[in-house]
Automatic annotation (TrEMBL):
<dbReference type="InterPro" id="IPR036087">
    <property type="entry name" value="Nict_dMeBzImd_PRibTrfase_sf"/>
</dbReference>
<comment type="similarity">
    <text>Belongs to the CobT family.</text>
</comment>
<keyword id="KW-0328">Glycosyltransferase</keyword>
<dbReference type="InterPro" id="IPR017846">
    <property type="entry name" value="Nict_dMeBzImd_PRibTrfase_bact"/>
</dbReference>
<comment type="pathway">
    <text>Nucleoside biosynthesis; alpha-ribazole biosynthesis; alpha-ribazole from 5,6-dimethylbenzimidazole: step 1/2.</text>
</comment>
<protein>
    <recommendedName>
        <fullName>Nicotinate-nucleotide--dimethylbenzimidazole phosphoribosyltransferase</fullName>
        <ecNumber>2.4.2.21</ecNumber>
    </recommendedName>
</protein>
<dbReference type="GO" id="GO:0008939">
    <property type="term" value="F:nicotinate-nucleotide-dimethylbenzimidazole phosphoribosyltransferase activity"/>
</dbReference>
<dbReference type="Pfam" id="PF02277">
    <property type="entry name" value="DBI_PRT"/>
</dbReference>
<dbReference type="InterPro" id="IPR003200">
    <property type="entry name" value="Nict_dMeBzImd_PRibTrfase"/>
</dbReference>
<keyword id="KW-0169">Cobalamin biosynthesis</keyword>
<dbReference type="InterPro" id="IPR023195">
    <property type="entry name" value="Nict_dMeBzImd_PRibTrfase_N"/>
</dbReference>
<comment type="function">
    <text>Catalyzes the synthesis of alpha-ribazole-5'-phosphate from nicotinate mononucleotide (NAMN) and 5,6-dimethylbenzimidazole (DMB).</text>
</comment>
<dbReference type="GO" id="GO:0009236">
    <property type="term" value="P:cobalamin biosynthetic process"/>
</dbReference>
<feature type="active site" description="Proton acceptor">
    <location>
        <position position="308"/>
    </location>
</feature>
<keyword id="KW-0808">Transferase</keyword>
């Protein structure tokens, strides 16, 4: 299916509406742009309030055996249980912004079957080591993308009009860095960061792992990037974004991992970024560069480096404010306020 076209006519009308509101033109800065962005995506001059849904996809990474994370793989499954019980950062932020939250196991190493509060769609017990071989077979990658799509479809059917994908997967900054390097043509030195908190030696090791993984796949097509150096959760996130854009539903991108998934989705469907807003700039080294490649401009820089969809959830109230201002402010005419030109 194709990505839905953006309604540029409504965008122009929304701009004109902003200029009639009782404030100096442009005085609300990016809040004005955001309101017009939603008007054109919803096809409504006065956009509806946002009903956000967050889907956190979880999967493990075989590349952890190279020692590229400060934490062991077992933390992925433990954190999924924490999500299900409501105790993680994303649970708090979802509650703060009134978002519904789904947790999906697409490839966690530990056995989570029977654990309540989780959607069980496991396609493998983590990926293979992307340094040595393809992270996953083609059919597994396709199934993970499809799982992401079906999560987006279900959320939209339940009434969500804003979609956020979050990630949980120890080792996934290495997979994400590999994707970002490959798809932006940038060096590992510029993209690889400290992830959960490795030291300088740990980062050098990661740089080397990513460099060698890129060498391994140098002759392969960009279309294979997810299965070669991605992750099950990253593939699901890409599918989630593709479905949102094909259903004409706005997306807020989180941090480094979400941006890697967005770049991978763009290989499959170049127009997907028309439906994306960038929330924050992650502390992870190459994030700025990934956002620039996506043509997205982050709203805030809070030096966060968490993932889980946390940065995206954090900006939802800003987006809500942008829409409320646009929809509820009086115009110069309705309030009897004299405009600039008398
Ligand atoms: C307790 C804990 C909670 C997290 N929530 C998200 N991440 C984040 O950190 C991991 C990526 O970093 P690296 O590539 O260095 O392993 C991912 O699981 C990501 O979701 C977490 C990491 C930890 C340790
Ligand atoms: O920006 C992110 O998404 C991120 C950064 C470090 C670790 N986990 C996630």
């Amino acid at each position: 299916m194709a990505v839905v076209a953006v309604n540029t006519e409504i965008e122009k009308e929304a701009r004109a509406h902003q200029d009639n509101l009782t404030k100096p033109r442009g005085a609300l800065g990016r809040l004005e742009d955001i309101a017009c962005w939603f008007a054109s995506r919803q096809g409504k001059l006065l956009p509806d309030p946002l009903l956000p849904h967050i889907a956190v996809f979880a999967g493990d990474h075989g590349v952890c055996e190279e020692g590229i994370s400060a934490y062991p793989s077992v933390v992925t499954g433990e954190m999924v249980k924490n999500f299900a019980r409501g105790g993680a950062a994303i649970n708090v932020l979802a509650r703060q912004c009134g978002a519904t939250l789904a947790i999906i196991d697409v490839g966690v190493m530990s056995d989570l079957s029977g654990f309540e509060g989780i959607t069980h769609k496991k396609f493998g017990s983590g990926t293979a080591n992307l340094l040595r071989e393809a992270a996953m077979p083609q059919n597994q990658c396709a199934a993970a993308i499809e799982a992401g799509r079906s999560e987006a479809k279900a959320a939209i059917a339940a009434g969500a009009n804003l979609l956020i994908a979050g990630d949980m997967g120890i080792g996934n900054t290495t997979a994400s860095a590999s994707i970002i390097c490959r798809l932006t043509g940038t060096t590992p030195e510029a993209v690889v960061g400290f992830g959960t908190g490795v030291d300088e030696n740990g980062r050098s090791l990661k740089v080397d792992v990513v460099r060698r993984a890129l060498e391994r796949i140098s002759g392969k097509a960009d279309e294979l990037v997810l299965q070669e150096v991605g992750g099950l959760e990253i593939a699901a996130m890409a599918g989630f974004y593709l479905q949102a854009a094909e259903s004409g539903i706005p997306i807020v991108i989180d941090g480094f991992i979400a941006s890697a998934a967005a770049l991978a989705a763009r290989v499959i469907e170049p127009q997907v970024t028309n439906w994306m807003l960038a929330s924050h700039i992650s502390h992870e080294n190459g994030h700025a560069l990934a956002l620039e490649a996506l043509g997205l401009s982050p709203l805030i820089n809070f030096e966060m480096r968490l993932g889980e969809g946390s940065g995206a959830a954090l900006v939802v109230p800003l987006l809500q404010s942008a829409i409320a201002l646009h929809s509820q402010m009086a115009t110069f005419a309705s309030a009897g306020v004299t405009d600039k030109d008398g």
